[in-house]
Amino acid sequence: MKKKPPFALKVLIAVSVLSAGLHSQNPITPAGLYIADPSAHVWPDGKLYIY
Predict the structure, then answer these.
(1) Helix, strand or coil, per DSSP, at residue 14
(2) What is the pLDDT of residue 1?
């Protein structure tokens, strides 16, 4: 008797197939502008700094 693949594996395959056509977007810089990897720092007062 064949074993069925686990549900988590089925979900992982479905997500991989469905997300293959998506492209990530960078909301900070416009398209075509390449910058170094940013570093985000959150201070205790809640301010977010991106270097």
Answers:
(1) helix
(2) 57
CB proximity list for 31: less than 8 A, separation 6 or greater: none
Residue indicated by tokens 């988590």: 8
- DSSP SS3 for 18: helix
Smallest CA-to-CA distance from 41 within 50, 29, 28 is with 50
pTM, full prediction: 0.34
Structural contact between residues 47 and 40, judged by C-beta atoms closer than 8 angstroms = no
- List pLDDT tens digits, range 12-40: 887 776 666 555 665 677 777 787 887 88
* Number of Cβ atoms within 10 Å of the Cβ of 22: 7
**Distance in angstroms (rounded) separating the CA atoms of residues 41 and 46:** 10
